[in-house]
Write a structure and sequence with these properties.
nine-stranded mixed beta sheet, 320 residues, alpha+beta, Fumarylacetoacetate hydrolase, domain 2, five-stranded mixed beta sheet
Length: 320
């Protein structure tokens, strides 16, 4: 997280560590919990009927529904996560078969996104390196499960992919410093920031090319901060039809996760359940040379981030 900062920052950290929110302390120098709190949380089952689950050491889904009714803002609070960390996955029933994995948690009030946050992606997009984070919003109606189909919208001609790290907020963040920013994070997940470039680039506002239905696959899991001790060392990758298109690492972000959470909190209050997707490395379809390459119906995207699992989506036509 870099240096501690000002005297006010240090004082704030000491006050923070005495509060309930300190239960979110990561494996940094400030960690006060020596317990085994590593968790991968998920929601499984048919769309609209998902149950809470936990992933065990062998990657199997365990039924968590007898412990909690759902996974939402309340369940990803510090005290609730502390309680869940005491549940041993092997004590839970194994879910039979290969269940659908839905969005790993519910109650997402804001879906914030950061653009051009990798210098190689900014270069391929023909854009200057930003001097501060580029912030836009994705509609919450675009959120879908990690293995759900991506629906090509009506009139879409330039459908594109973007593998990204998602930051899940666990406690209210308002005007937080960079030094304390990650203490407000519950965990991380994989996000595919699916984009329709023709819609996106019609104006200076990107939102309408980012928020179409199914343009926000998340998961397959929410991985807590005790397992992801440093979000700036994670490998990212994405394939289209088995061909590697994107390879990157979060260490090359222009703005780190801590900087992003702090920055966004200066302009909007971040609440438990809000998610920030942090930008993508080079290799998107728009940046292909000599000509851009875009998704078409039938294409399959496979993507993942080290420690956070993998996604897979097939592109299908709008059913209307």
């Amino acid at each position: 997280m870099g240096c501690l900062g000002t005297v006010d920052d240090i004082t704030g950290i000491l006050v923070f560590l005495a509060s309930d929110e300190s239960l979110f302390a990561t494996g940094s120098m400030y960690s006060i919990d020596g317990g085994d709190d590593d968790m991968k949380l998920c929601r499984y089952g048919k769309d609209g009927f998902e149950k809470p689950g936990m992933i065990d050491a062998e990657g199997r889904v365990r039924d968590l529904s007898k412990v909690i009714e759902s996974i939402g803002p309340k369940e990803i609070s510090p005290r609730e996560l502390k309680m869940l960390s005491k549940v041993k996955p092997e004590s839970l029933p194994v879910v039979a078969g290969n269940p659908r994995l839905g969005v790993p948690y519910v109650g997402i009030g804001k879906f914030v996104a950061i653009g051009l946050n990798y210098s190689d992606h900014a270069k391929e997009a023909g854009q200057p390196i930003p001097s501060e984070p580029v912030v836009f919003m994705k509609a919450t109606t675009c959120i879908s499960g990690a293995y759900d189909n991506v629906i090509q919208p009506k009139n879409s001609t330039k459908l594109d992919w973007e593998v990204e790290l998602g930051i899940v907020i666990g406690t209210k963040a308002q005007y937080v410093s960079e030094a304390k920013a990650l203490y407000h994070v519950a965990g991380y997940c994989v996000v595919n920031d699916v984009s329709e470039r023709a819609f996106q680039l019609q104006s200076s506002q990107w939102d309408k090319g980012k928020g179409c239905d199914s343009f926000g696959p998340m998961g397959p899991w929410l991985v807590t901060t005790d397992e992801i001790r440093d979000p700036q060392v994670l490998d990212l990758w994405l394939d289209v039809n088995g061909k590697r298109m994107q390879t990157g690492n979060t260490r090359t972000m222009i703005f780190s996760c801590a900087q992003i959470v702090s920055y966004v909190s200066q302009f909007m209050t971040l609440l438990p359940g809000d998610i920030i997707t942090t930008g993508t490395p080079a290799g998107v379809g728009l940046g292909m040379k000599p000509e851009p390459e875009f998704l078409k119906v039938g294409d399959v995207m496979t993507l993942g981030i080290k420690g956070l699992g993998e996604q897979k989506q097939k592109v299908v036509a709008w059913p209307g």
